[in-house]
Amino acid sequence: MTPTALDFLSELVRVRSGVILQTEKSYFAESRLAPLARREGLESVEALLTGLRQHWDEQLAMATVDAMSIIDTSFFRDRAVFERIGKVILPTLAAARQDGVVRVWCAGCSTGQEAYSMAMLAVQVEQQVPNLKIDIIGTDLSQRALEKAHSGIYTQFEVQRGLPIRLLLQHFEKTGEMWQASERLRHAVRWRQLNLLEDRRSVRAFDILLCRNVVRYFDRQTADRVLEQMAGALAPDGVLVLGAGETTGAPSLIRDETAPETYRKTAARGQAAA
Amino acid sequence: MGLVVDDSRSVRKVARRILESLDFETAEAVDGIEALAFCKAAMPDAILLDWAMPNMDGLEFLQLLRQEPGGDAPVVVFCAAENDPAKIAQALDAGANEYIMKPFDGDIVASKFSMAGLL
Q1: Nearest alpha carbon to residue A216 among A244, A256, A254
Q2: Does B113 contact chain A (CB < 8 Å)?
Q3: How far is residue A238's CA from residue A230's CA, in Å, rounded to a whole number?
Q4: Looking at residue A250, what is its pLDDT?
Q5: Nearest to A21 by CA among A5, A42, A41
Q6: Which of B71, B91, B68 is nearest to B81 (CA)?
Q7: What residue numbers bound the domain in which B99 lies?
Q8: Would you call A169 an interface residue with chain B, using a CB distance cutoff of 8 Å?
Q9: CATH number, residue B91
Q10: What's the gap between Cα A120 and its chain centre?
Q11: Domain limits of chain A?
């Protein structure tokens, strides 16, 4: 791949998804885009990018960004986070809600493992907190990832990453060599395509906002802008959880000193500590 | 101490390397009979257990192990080609702590060991 083509790709991905590609990894781009180039009947990835540069095609541009999206996820990733959500955050929020409804937004949900983990966790917590009702929405930029998330179908390898065997048997059905999330789990989550970079006003207030291993691929300024916007979608006593090692300087968010990678709205300081 | 029980030499070799990378001192057994003899002499902390083996299979070994004095202590992680939900449930009922469906890799073993409280 020529430096021109690689620069073009990096800029396209950065502008559309916020992700900063490591440009020394051109083999990564090659391997991700080769199937798309083939599908388009083009002879190479280079031809795909050159063609796009010369004759803009919005659909092909988005398919290119989609193919470059980072899919690295597992069930119950960072187990301690889910333990804390199950033991402390969910029961506290359910108790604070008259209708017991806790609204969860998995931002950058990729192929759905995190959202389904939340749904499984809620089934467990319901036994101690009977009035809990969980409402989960998973969003991602990648249509390809969302299709997989929506199907709830995973390979045997995928269901062995982070998912305890008892939960696999409880919540998944074996279909051929694949495993599919139960109807109950699939009904617990709604999926939407959403670009976190786009300006929007949220009409809903979320109680738990998971945005883990997403902003680490953005530059600092973009990350803070995206998270500042997300703070507007957070209930006054809601929590935002970032991925391991991620931090933010977004002005409307303040770190919860009692738990790692957890933020609250600055306005909520001093009240409703979970 | 981790014990790898599998009749395939190549699987034992791969599994041993993975367990050693997770800081387990590792021993091997070729079937249930050899594994049971090993456990009677020295109970391991973890057992990575194949199902289909000659002489004594993994399920029978597990049932006998759990009846031994101190036999409830080892964390037993099945690592078997059987991937039918009913079969897996049978292994859990017999006292398995976790279950890996072959083929497996180091990430899966580490993930399952961690779930079973070994890491």
Answers
A1: A244
A2: no
A3: 11
A4: 95
A5: A5
A6: B91
A7: 2-115
A8: yes
A9: 3.40.50.2300
A10: 17
A11: 3-67, 79-268
pTM score: 0.90
**How does DSSP assign chain A, residue by residue?**
--HHHHHHHHHHHHHHH-----TT-HHHHHHHHHHHHHHTT-S-HHHHHHHHHHS--HHHHHHHHHHT------TTSSHHHHHHIIIIIHHHHHHHSTT-EEEEEEET-TTSHHHHHHHHHHHHHTTT-TT-EEEEEEEES-HHHHHHHHHTEE-TTGGGSS--HHHHHHHEEEETTEEEE-HHHHHHEEEEE--TTS----SS-EEEEEE-SSGGGS-HHHHHHHHHHHHTTEEEEEEEEEPTT-----TTEEE-TTSTTEEEEGGGTTS---
Q: Do B98 and A160 touch (CB under 8 A)?
A: no
| CB atoms A79 and B84 under 8 Å | no
Q: Which residues of B touch A161 (CB under 8 A)?
A: 107-108, 111
pLDDT tens digits along B40-79: 999 999 999 999 999 999 999 999 999 999 999 999 999 9
* Of the candidates A109, A119, A129, A108, the residue with the CA atom closest to the CA atom of residue A163: A119
With residue B102 as reference, give the H or E element that holds it: none
Partner A contacted by B23 (CB < 8 A) = no
Q: What φ, ψ does residue A231 adopt, rounded to 5°?
A: -55, -30
Give the class (CATH, top level) of A79-268.
Answer: alpha beta
Q: Specify the residue for token string 């065997």.
A: A165
ipTM: 0.95
